[in-house]
Amino acid sequence: MKVAFHTLGCKVNHYETEAIKEAFVSRGAEIVGEEDPADVYIINTCTVTNIADRKSRQFIRRAKKANPNAVIVVTGCYAQVASDDVAAMPEVDLIMGNNRKSEICGLVMEKLAFKSSTAASAEGSGASDSNRAEVLVTPRNELTFYEDLGKIKSASDEMSRAYIKIQDGCDRFCSYCLIPYARGPVRSRPAAEIVEEVRDLVEAGFREVVLTGINTALYGTEAGAECSLSELLTMLDELESSEDFRVRLSSLEPTVVDKDNVEEIIRHRRLCHHLHLSVQNGSDSVLKAMNRHYTRDEYLDIVFMLRSHDPLFGITTDIIVGFPGETDKDFEDTRDIVKKSAFGRTHVFRYSPRKGTAGAAMKDAVPEQIKKDRAEALESLGEKAAKAFTGANLGITHTVLIEESCDGYATGYTGNYIKAYIEDPEGWIEAGKLYKAVLTRTFRDGALAVLE
Question: The dihedral of CA 404, 430, 154, 268: what is its sign?
Fold first, then answer.
């Protein structure tokens, strides 16, 4: 049996895809590329944007064309919030919502066995009627437990950093976002399982582990949770290992944490001096309309605290432009917060309404051309801020995790998330290893560096 996967969206989705893959491998399946002929295609979907929904539908159709007799499984966030739309596609056999991904392998085996027993009548029939898809989607209010997907061996970037899911769900309900509806309420993974998985991954050779979740900052905040995020980081600080390793947080949300929370978190010795801290907008009025529970000054308080802890602390962010009602003055406030925060990277998105969110019903839509102009202006400003941040790090020794070699350079990231290029024409610098290196000058999307 050959199984192909197509994954859209966040690192949590990619982590969960690896768990599903390992379940199939344990049952003797062969994993093939998404463009290869396969008996089973599993599409792990995203619904952050309308584009993500469209890409999911496109791949479903493409997979069925590749093999009309294949079993097509659709899971993930789009499957969770729009199962009726997915079920209307004649190509789909099985729709699995979030928190049911551990069941996919067993159900596919059953479907393949049934298809085999009815092969004579099904021969060459391809897709059948639009009602044939089996839909197994748990309602949001019943997503009350953290689904155990087991320990994952290979959710990684080229055997350098490993991703570990520690949390699921979100209860913030930002007015532009469908994810709380797709992922349900907050559920945290038991700390002992996380620590054990980290230990195994470090022993397997990984030198950086990234703790990820739908809203990582919410880890341990639900009723009955056994420990906080800070306490989990303490456990990882105390984890005995013969090899050095570092821990990175995938993101923190200022809707959840304030200056004091972050100050407690960043003092852990293994934690990289880098946080992805999504500001989303620099205007107080837009933040309020977005249902983001902080002000621009409260966000800047976190930034200034991080930089007082380490002047070279890396901060990356997401920003949405063109939210309904955003004025020229609001946009100037956003430009101002980019300048004051000195972001290492600024990811800019144009607002697009998502059906089912509060934002979709808001008036005073911003014209598309204005969104485009603002996005381009902010991207340019973000690039200048990134170069300035890199420039401030020149002459400083950093620890670099090497990820790959390309065009005579070994490349990887510093702890504060600057991409380093180290000349390595002979190719002797090893991927997946930590090296001390001094950044020497800005170069491409990061900096040239020499080994110390």
Answer: negative
What's the CA gap between 413 and 406, in Å, rounded? 14
What SS3 state is found at 118? Answer: coil
What's the DSSP call for residue 161?
E
Q: Cα–Cα distance between 312 and 444 in angstroms, integer?
A: 20
Q: Are 283 and 333 within 8 A, CB to CB?
A: yes
Q: Name the DSSP letter for residue 361.
A: G
What are the counts of helices (DSSP H) followed by strands (DSSP E) for the chain? 14, 19
Under a CB-based contact definition with an 8 Å cutoff, are residues 273 and 237 in contact? no
Buried b (16+ CB within 10 A) or exposed e, 431-447: bbebbebbbeebeeebb
Contacts of residue 333, Cβ cutoff 8 Å, sequence gap at least 6: 281, 282, 283, 284, 296
| Token representation of residue 312 | 């070279």
Separation CA 82–CA 74 (nearest Å): 11
Task: Identify which of 383, 279, 289 has the alpha carbon closest to the alpha carbon of residue 327.
Answer: 289
Question: Which residues are paired to 254 by β-bridges?
Answer: none
> Tens of pLDDT along 334-363?
999 999 999 999 999 999 999 999 999 999
Q: Residues with Cβ < 8 Å from 93, sequence gap 6 or more?
A: 71, 72, 73, 111, 132, 133, 134
pLDDT tens digit sequence for 149-176: 988 876 665 558 899 999 999 999 999 9
Other C-beta atoms closer than 10 Å to the C-beta of 112 total 15
pTM above 0.85, yes or no: yes
Please list, in sequence order, all residues whose beta carbon lies within 8 angstroms of the beta carbon of residue 283, skipping any fewer than 6 positions away: 296, 326, 329, 330, 331, 333, 334
